Amino acid sequence: VVEDIIHKEVEVNLGGDRKVVTILFMDLIGFTSLSEKLQPEEVVSILNEYFTEMSKGIFKWQGTLDKFAGDQIMAFWGAPFEQLNHAELAVQCALEVSKTLDELQKKWEKEGKPVLNCGIGINTGEVLVGNIGVEGMKMDYTVIGDAVNLAARVEKITRQYASRILITEFTFEDIRKSIESGRMQNMKFTDLAEVKVKGKEQGVRIYRVEGTEEV
User: Fold this and answer.
1) Distance between CA atoms of 37 and 138, rounded to whole angstroms?
2) Is omega for the bond preceding 80 within 30 degrees of 0, making it cis?
3) What residues does 207 pair with on adjacent strands?
4) Which ranges constitute the DSSP H helices of 80-139?
5) CA 126, CA 85: separation in Å to the nearest integer?
6) What is the largest CA-CA distance in the chain?
7) CA-CA distance, 14 to 136, in Å (whole number)?
8) Cβ distance 195 to 206 under 8 Å?
9) Nearest alpha carbon to residue 151 among 90, 83, 98, 193
10) Per-residue pLDDT of the chain (215 residues; tens, 9 = 90+)
11) Which one, of 145, 94, 121, 126, lies nearest residue 195 by Cα?
12) What span, in angstroms and rounded, lies between the C-alpha atoms of 27 and 29?
């Protein structure tokens, strides 16, 4: 994003544009209570290792890493430049970072460190994307809107359905053609339920995403 700003391909003024993007939230499970039992240096060490490995997957799948908030990671696809397959890229990224976390868990166990797990929630929809903040002082290139809130809330219910990766019906519909064409044969999708989330009058269907043995 910084390179695009330097080359004047992304506006740096406050405000934004409406775009359809795919948003991903990742959150460590039980980290708040665990951090109370560890020294600050241990917390930072574990978080930095986790953030580093997860970020590699986001960049590999051409995502925009929005922010770290505590132990939460927020990323999105479809901005600042068009990505016609933004939903597919986000879901492929989720599967890859999930596998990476499996490897991290084995490493942490060998090192006698706490073995952490995470939840991943993904949603696709229209948002306001652009620069939010104080002109000339502090601006944050981010996405805002109901679709963002839904992604965050879907991540929270991964615990309820004992699933690491959940996507909404909106993301599923966006990638349906890719699934039917066989381009996502490395994944299994399970229609779980229609759920009610805070701030939404209508229920939203959610799907579990898991990897298969196929490459």
Assistant:
1) 34
2) yes
3) 167, 191
4) 86-110
5) 15
6) 51
7) 9
8) yes
9) 90
10) 666 656 655 555 556 789 999 999 999 998 877 788 888 888 888 899 999 999 999 999 999 999 999 899 999 999 988 899 999 999 999 999 999 999 999 999 999 888 899 999 999 999 998 887 777 667 788 999 999 999 999 999 999 999 999 999 999 999 999 999 988 989 999 999 999 887 777 899 999 999 986 44
11) 121
12) 6
- Count of C-beta atoms within a 10 Å radius of residue 84: 8
Burial 187-200 (b: 16+ CB within 10 A, else e): bebeeeeebebeee
Are 58 and 39 spatial neighbours (Cβ–Cβ below 8 Å)?
A: no
Are 17 and 132 within 8 A, CB to CB? no
Structure tokens that stand for 215 in this block: 């490459």
Name the residue among 116, 64, 95, 114 with its Cα closest to residue 175: 95
